[in-house]
From TrEMBL:
Presence of keyword Lyase: no
UniProt KW Transmembrane keyword: yes
Membrane topology of this protein: Multi-pass membrane protein
Superkingdom of the organism of origin: Bacteria
Record-given protein name: GABA permease
Gene designation: gabP
Cited NCBIfam families: GABAperm (TIGR01773)
InterPro entries according to UniProt: AA-permease/SLC12A_dom, Amino_acid_permease_CS, GABA_permease
Residues covered by the Amino acid permease/ SLC12A domain: 14-444
Keywords: Membrane, Transmembrane, Transmembrane helix, Transport
Transmembrane segments annotated in the record for this chain: 15-36, 42-61, 93-117, 123-142, 149-174, 194-217, 238-259, 279-298, 330-351, 357-377, 398-422, 428-444
Pfam families membership: AA_permease
Location relative to the cell: Membrane
Length: 463
């Protein structure tokens, strides 16, 4: 380890692909089936509302990132806007969210591989997947960008092919593969909102977590040339990305698969749609796509967790060891430290009592909403500081401060609503307790840092 700085190793095509494919995770291919089963065709409202929230949050984050690109992203902005305790707290919560996501993806990948090769133990396979995909983060950031470029390209091609296939079936261009269409399915299965509009709220909480990861591009752009331009491009493109990859693909599924199909939540929406269209080897096709999506997600999770840990260490909010980088400008200790926690969590899933891993997951269940809330509050504060300093960037949040306040109120309402929905109460409670504990640590850390600085200044003044 030779220094403590990163290098602009990501190329424009890397950042572009990250911005396009960053919101496409395994959740779209698998868990969208649960949301559709909950709300029926009205699930499209959940995706519209959630997508609009992500667009607004990305716009706010983009404004701050263009004004001051930083690999710590919203954690750094919270530090400047709200206080060091806020940057400390949201940074550690975000890191915790991503290191716990690593075993989830590894377990999903191991289950797919085990179905292909039953002789392989799933826990060994899961650990092997983590180690293998972490290797791309041990070298230069360009290596990570190259892996993510090809993973992202495959995901995009898969979704476009799926949309084209469904469109062809709906137009009667596929022989012996007739599908009903959304109008007929609604007429036969209870209409637009068969479970009532209240079911849309529950579906929104499911879809909310499918979008987490859109903000990663603002972290990665800090390691590219001309990060302000890259962030502007990525943020401007988030609208059509959500419309094409989420809204259009979900609309196609709703036109093919009945919302009350018992296999829908079991096998996932994409696979069930292919089965209904009599596409050969639908299970194998989706398994391959999901495996690649899982690999892409894990690759990004290790990268994102390590950069957040690196940023925390640079600001003195994490052990100094994690701020050092190799000659290739890679925060090797931060990558290794994040991966080790992911490995430990994976082992807990297989060898500890089942409730232990479930509790760990519940502590990160509402972190995505907390991150979005902090981004909105930070933008509200920093915009005024930028205006006072006369350094407001050309890329700005729309209708400030009204839309910013609308996002703050909406997220606050969603967090409160989660507590009153039994299925999400344990998550919001566990995440809330963890957040309170970390905030307390952040306040203590801030006071100690302030006291140390005061003592150093006093010692210097006496010399």
């Amino acid at each position: 380890m030779s220094n403590s700085s990163l290098a602009p190793g990501l190329k424009q095509r890397h950042v572009t692909m990250l911005s396009i494919a960053g919101v496409i995770g395994a959740g779209l291919f698998v868990f969208s089936g649960h949301a559709i089963a909950k709300a029926g065709p009205a699930v499209i409202l959940a995706y519209v509302f959630t997508g609009a929230l992500v667009v607004l949050v990305m716009r706010m984050l983009g404004e701050m990132a263009v004004a001051s690109p930083d690999t710590g992203s919203f954690s750094t902005y919270a530090d400047r806007a709200i206080g060091p305790w806020a940057g400390f707290s949201i940074g550690w919560l975000y890191w915790w969210f991503w290191v716990l996501a690593i075993p989830l993806e590894a377990i999903a990948a191991a289950n797919i591989i085990h179905a292909w090769v039953p002789a392989l133990d799933t826990w060994i396979t899961a650990l092997a997947v983590i180690v293998l995909l972490t290797c791309s983060n041990f070298f230069s950031v360009a290596r990570y960008g190259e892996f993510e470029f090809w993973f992202g390209l495959i995901k995009i091609v898969a979704i476009i092919a799926f949309i084209a296939l469904c469109a062809a079936a709906l137009m009667g261009l596929l022989p012996e593969r007739e599908v009903s269409g959304i109008g007929q399915l609604m007429a036969e299965h209870g209409g637009f909102a068969p479970n009532g509009l209240s079911a849309v709220i529950g579906a929104m909480l499911t879809t909310m977590f499918s979008f987490i990861g859109a903000e990663v591009v603002t972290i990665a752009a800090a390691e590219s040339k001309n990060p302000a331009r890259q962030i502007t491009r990525a943020t401007n493109s988030v609208v059509w990305r959500i419309c094409v990859f989420y809204l259009l693909s979900i609309l196609m599924i709703l036109s093919v698969v009945p919302w009350n199909d018992p296999r829908l939540p079991e096998v996932g929406s994409f696979q069930r749609a292919l089965e209904i269209m009599n596409i050969p080897n639908a299970n194998l096709v989706i398994d391959i796509v999901v495996l690649l999506a899982v690999a892409s997600c894990m690759n990004s999770q290790v990268y994102t967790a390590s950069r957040m840990l690196y940023s925390l260490a640079k600001r003195g909010d994490a052990p100094r060891l994690y701020k050092y980088t190799t000659k290739a400008n890679v925060p090797l200790a931060a990558v290794a430290g994040s991966t080790v926690i992911g490995i430990v969590a994976t082992c807990i899933n297989y060898f500890a009592p089942e409730n232990v891993f479930k509790f760990l997951l519940s502590t990160s269940g509402a972190v995505a909403l907390l991150v979005y809330l902090v981004i909105a509050i930070s933008q509200l504060c920093l915009r005024r500081k930028l205006m006072a300093a006369g350094t407001l960037p050309a890329f700005r949040m729309w209708l400030f401060p009204w839309l910013t306040w609308a996002v703050i109120l909406f997220i606050s309402g969603a967090l409160i609503g989660m507590f009153f929905i039994p299925a999400y109460r344990s998550e919001i409670t566990a995440t809330g307790l963890l957040a309170v504990m970390i905030i307390c640590l952040g306040v203590i850390h801030q006071r100690r840092t302030h006291a140390t600085s005061h003592q150093q200044r006093a010692a210097l003044s006496q010399r």
